[in-house]
Design brief:
The chain is α/β, with parallel strands linked by helices. The protein has ten helices and eight strands. It has an eight-stranded parallel β-sheet. The longest helix has 21 residues. The structure holds pyridoxal-5'-phosphate.
Length: about 240
């Protein structure tokens, strides 16, 4: 069942964007984080190109998309926004990897050596592009199946990614189990931050802990996030979606 929402209004979104930026700064202060140490990725899935452009004009440069088919038209439509940077944050389907490797500046959702190898291979073919920034995805809902021995499995994948010349490993993308309560959100994010610090012992250049969404960015900032990925708190609720 699709629940049709009214089209988001440009002015409301710009206002919500400005409010969100202030809330992020306020969280930095509250949790003794360095000012401007938390970057914002505006998650624009299901949003239109004009709306994205309005937020871009308001000062936001990094936008996150979850589906290649949907992102493609927007990437083409917004080519004139020369400092707009596209981040892919969705599940990676093997038949889309070549498009992701060529059209995004970042891919946050790497979970296997095979995906990393294919991204590297296709990025290499785009000779004009610098290495693709990547994060390894830690989704607490599925992490036990993907990385049964969390620390050593993630470290192995990180070690492998570091050998690929057309990828630049930046850190982790963390997705918490949905909880509405700050202490339990913080417990998962704390665990993720410990893992991030462990990886940094081996790979000191890592600089990105992408964690925190509209419902849990305060907990994420409290626990060391360097990038929050925010959709609905800027654009309003998405049409009948859970992801
Ligand atoms: C959709 C999505 C977000 C943004 O979610 P909101 O709750 O709308 O802020 C962040 N990260 C990922 C991986 C997503 O899929």
């Amino acid at each position: 069942m699709q629940f049709v929402m009214p089209a988001p209004n440009l002015l409301n979104c710009t206002q919500a964007f400005n409010n969100l930026c202030q809330q992020v700064r306020a969280c930095e202060l509250k949790y003794q984080r360095r000012l401007n140490s938390v970057n914002l990725l505006a998650v624009s899935k299901q949003q239109t190109a004009p709306l994205i452009e309005a937020i871009y004009q308001a000062g936001q440069h990094c936008f996150g998309e979850s589906y290649w088919q949907e992102a493609r038209a927007k990437i083409i439509a917004l080519q004139h926004c020369t400092s707009l940077e596209w981040h892919f944050i969705g599940n990676i389907q093997h038949n889309k990897i070549k498009h992701l490797a060529r059209n995004f500046a970042w891919v946050h959702s790497v979970t296997t050596t095979q995906i990393a190898a294919e991204l590297n291979k296709h990025r290499a073919l785009a000779v004009e592009l610098s290495p693709l920034n990547i994060c390894l995805e830690i989704n607490f809902a599925t992490v036990a199946q993907i990385f049964p021995h969390l620390d050593s499995d993630v470290l192995k994948l990180a070690n492998y990614c570091q050998t690929l010349p057309h990828l630049k490993l930046r850190g982790l993308m963390v997705i918490a189990n949905q909880t509405t309560n700050l202490p339990s959100q913080r417990a998962e994010f704390k665990q993720a931050n410990l893992l991030f610090n462990l990886l940094k012992l081996h790979h000191p250049a890592l600089d990105t802990l992408s964690m925190g969404m509209s419902a849990d960015f305060e907990a994420a900032i409290a626990e060391g996030s360097t990038m929050v990925r925010i959709g609905s708190a800027i654009f309003g609720r998405r049409n009948g979606s859970s992801s």
